[in-house]
Structure formats: C-alpha cells, structure tokens
Amino acid sequence: MAALLTTSVGSFPKPDYLLKARTAFARGEISREQLAAEERRATEACIRLQERLGIDILVHGEMERGDMTTYFAEQLEGFAISGLVRSYGNRYYRKPIVIGPIGRRRPMAVEAFTLAQSLTSRPVKGMLTGPYTMADWSFNDYYPNRRALVLRLAEVIHEEAVDLERAGARYIQIDEPAISTRPEEIDLAIEALGIVTRGLSAHTITHICYGHFETIYPRMLDLPVDQLDLEAANNDFAILELFRRHRPHKEIALGVVDVHSHRVEPVEQIKKGILAALEVLEPDQLYIDPDCGLKTRTWEEAEQKLANMVEAVRQVKAERGLE
C-alpha cells in the first residue's frame, strides 16, 4: 500500500470572481446559469491547484456550497430555512428547520462530483454532510425526537452515497463534525453512519472536529467507515496520546496544518507533526491533510499551507525510505 497519501478535507476558499458572482446572483443581476459557469471555473481552478501541488486524493472545493448543512437542506423535502444564526465567531448561516417528512427530490452532490472527476485522472472524493450533523445543526419541528430525525436523515444520505458510488466515486466522505460535541449520543452516531455506509464498496471516510476527542475515544473507532479524518494541528497533536493508549485499527487522516490560523506553518513544523504521528501509526495507515476545510483562508494562504504540507510529506518519505 502507498504511504502517507495526501488529501484535503473538502472546502476551498471561493475566488474573488465567484464571490462577486454569488453577490450578483443574490441581487438578481445574473442568471443561475451564469453563476454555475463561475462555479465550474472555480472548481477547475481548485482541481488544477491540487494537481500542481501533487496532492494524491483530490476534493472539488465545494464551490457550489455555502453552509455544509443548509446546502443539502435546501434541496430536501421537509425543510424550511431560518434567518441568519451565529455559527461561531462572526460567521453566520441560515439554519435549517425540519417541518415535515424528509425526502430526497433528486441527487444533490453527483453533478459537482462528476464535473470535478472529469477534470482529472486522480481520484476525487464524493462529499456529503452526515446525518448526525445535519440533525444537530437544524431545528426539529416535526420528528418526535432526535433519534427519529437522525435515522431518517441517514436513510436519505445513504441514497445519495449510493448515487455517488454509481457515478464513479472511489472515495466517499461523510462529514460529521458534530459527533464529538455530544458524547452521550455516540451510539446513535455510530448507528446512523452504519446506515449511510451500508453496502458501499467505495472507500468511506468521516471527518470529525469541533470537540474534545477524548470524550468519545476509543468508541469513535467503532464508526463504520474505513478512515477517520481528524484535526490535530490546532491542539498541538494531543490526539496522539489517545492513540498511544489505544491504537486505532483503521486508517487515520491527520490534520497537520491549522485552518483557523492565517499563519502558514513552516515545513519543519509540519514534518515534526508527521514524525510524531509515525511513532504510533503505520505509514500506510496514515494520510496527511489540513485540520478541516480551507474555506475560511484566503486562496493564497490555502495554497501555501498545502504546498508546505506536500513538501513536508515528500521530505519525510525520502528520509524514511517510503518513496
């Protein structure tokens, strides 16, 4: 197996021309087709950047998405969308409200995946927001309890995952950042993710952040996916101590650059984190990526962080004879 494969978590910064187009569309100044053309342009720029840097498993950058939950809720039956709600810091999103039975009208992520995969010979991840996070980041005014809502969402997102696999996705990532915020519901999160990944032959991944991993470890190793994608850089790689106590039996994609900081980490600092991870994980078990999506950085910062990450991996592989 290949060692220290590089990837990214999902979102990329939206280029200025796309931000302007989104504003113009909201004002009714351009058509949906014109906006879609700019989204395609930005998606190709994202793919070309990753190819140029030498990243192994690509993402499409989520140029067509705003908030990761609202994007899907807007396309599903059974949801309304609220006014602006604070997410964190000075960032806001329009929170979904469940008002009726949830159902899928049509595939929601296949078109963007198909476009991105057509632009490159390298594998592109299919990207979904998981059922637990969809439920946790929405108001529930219809289902009798959280469990009923989460499990219904799991069935709907499973349908989407099946469509992504049929469209050629070799990697399917189901983002579940909310899992670590309610450790008492880890069993529900495991059950729901099992529904999403049921019967899939694609390589499955879940990304988790926004919490204290020690509250759900080692139970989170029971999440039914091939790979856990976890942030590490922004808490000084404290998660490695958990791995020392209870070694994970599945792949780990480890965040080695902090996406919440404008600072571009030098190569030597990133290498130090990778080498520390190799003390507790096997090279073919360890994937390398940023802590989370890059959409809050500038395009230049994202490129510089990824370039240094790839160079750090290159140097580690050369020094360890892993080429």
Could you characterize the architecture of this molecule?
The protein has 323 residues and is an alpha/beta fold. The protein is built from ten helices and nine strands. The strands form two sheets. Strands 3-5-6-7-8-9 form a six-stranded parallel beta sheet. Strands 1-2-4 form a three-stranded mixed beta sheet. Helix 7 links the parallel strand 5 and strand 6. Helix 6 runs parallel beside helix 7 and helix 9 crosses helix 10. It is globular. The termini are close together. The relative contact order is 0.13.
Task: Provide keyphrases for this structure.
323 residues, alpha/beta, 6-stranded parallel β-sheet, 3-stranded mixed β-sheet, 9 strands
| Rounded Rg | 19 Å
Q: How many helical elements?
A: 10
Spatial arrangement of strands, main beta sheet? 3-5-6-7-8-9
Major sheet summary line: 6 strands, parallel
Q: What is the terminal-to-terminal distance?
A: 11 Å
Report the order of strands and helices. Answer: HHHEEHEHEHEHEEHEHEH
Query: pLDDT under 50 segments (min length 5)?
Result: none
Helix content: 25-40%
- Indicate the structural class: alpha/beta
The average pLDDT is 95
Strand content: 15-25%
The count of β-strands is 9
Q: Which word captures the global form?
A: globular
